[in-house]
Design goal:
With about 450 residues, this protein is an all-alpha fold. The chain contains 17 helices and no strands.
Length: about 450
């Protein structure tokens, strides 16, 4: 069993490194891609949003399928598709093809996200789970740390396409290593898949997350999405084998408010790296490599403190550890919202480091609280709910950026000539994010106590 646990930890850790590495590296490359493909600020935001949208939409269905067909099997298929779609991104000849390839990559990401944490919770006992999740979270932040520096170097010296080539190679290595996992976990084997519920769910989220891009019909689309979600919830309450077991929320205050806190946290914070990359390169004139080196401060701090935060949540109430982290994050967002047009380097370094600490204190304790609040047969669905909350929050964060850029940039390109317009848009985005983060603090505190297994 120790060898089994090690294999699961390494395979999940590699996949957890892979996706944030790509995302953080791509953030640094966005201004260069925009110039080379002559795309507007709004269009470029879809290079990020397309991936997030499909990931958020398909996470829950793939989590359910993983419980039915086997968590390792779905994980392996997801890693393989992720590598292939990365190659499609690398050879994209237009911004439209790149966005479409990113959407496919998001589907693959959903297959990986929906199973990686459940693999860990299946193989690791409760008393060691917080530490294991902390280590896994640390690999996420190592990916985030390496990504900006490597992405900046590759973009400046070779091409932004090299980022996707490296991601494809890493996906191949991850797939080969995951083959070493011998056990399989399929606790819902033989149960029926809720196809109608999955269609309702996917359609509702697609309408909701894309509503911000449609200036004149966005409200109508959002209204339709809410209506479909209500129909979905009513159906799931009556379904024998639901896509989303609503009892997870009804029976556990810890699960409900921890999930809400995750949604608000990622909704408030995901766009930080994207916006700061635009700020540093478009307004301040940093090279991609210089911007990448500065942006790695935040994830390096995250990576260093995540295992400690996970271990703390094994011994102390996760809600307190996570709430302190989210409160610190709120102050950092407020600092970004009020920073001057040419903020000095010491200010940026300080706030980046503080936000890294805040993220570390929130993330792994919050995941530990969520997965420890459900039974073993629901780890796959719970893992998918965690990941869906994260991806939905990230998608909403980028949808907010799309909406703000649409209203304030008016189709303007990413250019130093329009730095004032870009900066005003950034400050509005950071102000909205500050409010979301503050709401997340209250959600985190409201979850109640979590009783650890002895």
């Amino acid at each position: 069993m120790p060898n089994e646990k090690r294999a699961v930890l390494i395979a999940a850790g590699l996949s957890s490194f892979l996706t944030p590495f790509m995302g953080s590296a791509l953030n640094v490359a966005i201004p260069v891609i925009g110039r080379q493909m002559h795309a507007t600020a709004v269009t470029m935001s879809w290079v990020i949003s397309a991936y997030l949208l499909t990931s958020a939409v398909f996470l829950l269905p793939f989590g359910r399928l993983a419980d039915m067909l086997g968590r390792k099997r779905v994980f392996l298929m997801g890693v393989a598709l992720f590598g292939l779609s990365s190659l499609l991104c690398a050879v994209s000849s237009s911004i439209e093809i790149l966005i479409a390839s990113r959407a496919i990559q998001g589907i693959a990401g959903a297959m990986v996200f929906g199973t990686a944490v459940s693999l860990i919770t299946s193989a690791i006992p409760p008393g060691e789970r917080g530490k294991a999740l902390g280590i896994n979270t640390a690999t996420v932040y190592v990916g985030l740390s390496v990504g900006p520096a490597v992405g900046g170097f590759l973009t400046q010296t070779l091409s932004w396409r090299a980022i996707f080539v490296i991601v494809a190679a890493l996906a191949g290595i991850t797939w080969l290593y995951a083959q070493r996992i011998r056990s399989e976990w399929s606790p819902a084997q033989g149960e029926r898949f809720d196809t109608a519920g999955a269609v309702l769910y996917c359609l509702a989220l697609t309408l909701l997350l894309s509503a911000a891009s449609w200036r004149h019909t966005g409200i109508a689309l959002a209204g339709m999405a809410v209506l479909l979600l209500v129909v979905f919830a009513v159906r799931e309450a009556r379904e024998e084998h639901p896509l989303l077991d609503l009892h997870l929320f009804r029976n556990s205050t810890v699960f409900t408010f921890s999930t809400l806190a995750a949604l608000l946290n990622y909704g408030a914070t995901f766009s930080i790296g994207y916006l700061l990359s635009l700020y540093l390169q478009t307004i301040r004139g940093f090279t991609p490599q210089e911007a990448g080196l500065l942006l790695l401060i935040q994830p390096v701090v995250q990576a260093g403190f995540s295992p400690l935060a996970g271990a703390l949540s094994d011994r102390h109430e996760p809600r307190m550890v996570a709430s302190v982290g989210m409160l610190l994050t709120t102050f950092c967002l407020l600092a970004y919202a009020s920073m001057p047009y040419r903020a000095n380097l010491a200010f940026l370094v300080t706030v980046l480091a503080a936000s890294g600490l805040g993220f570390a204190l929130f993330s792994s304790p919050n995941v530990n609280a969520i997965v420890s609040a459900v039974s073993g047969t629901r780890y796959g669905v719970a893992s998918s709910v965690v990941s869906t909350a994260r991806m939905l929050g990230q998608s909403l964060s980028m949808a907010m950026i799309v909406l703000i850029f649409t209203l304030t940039m008016h189709g303007l390109p990413l250019s130093p000539s329009y730095g004032e317009e870009l900066f005003r848009s950034m400050r509005v985005a950071f102000a909205v994010s500050t409010v979301l983060s503050l709401l997340g603090v209250f959600a985190s505190l409201a979850r109640g106590r979590m009783h650890h297994s002895s």
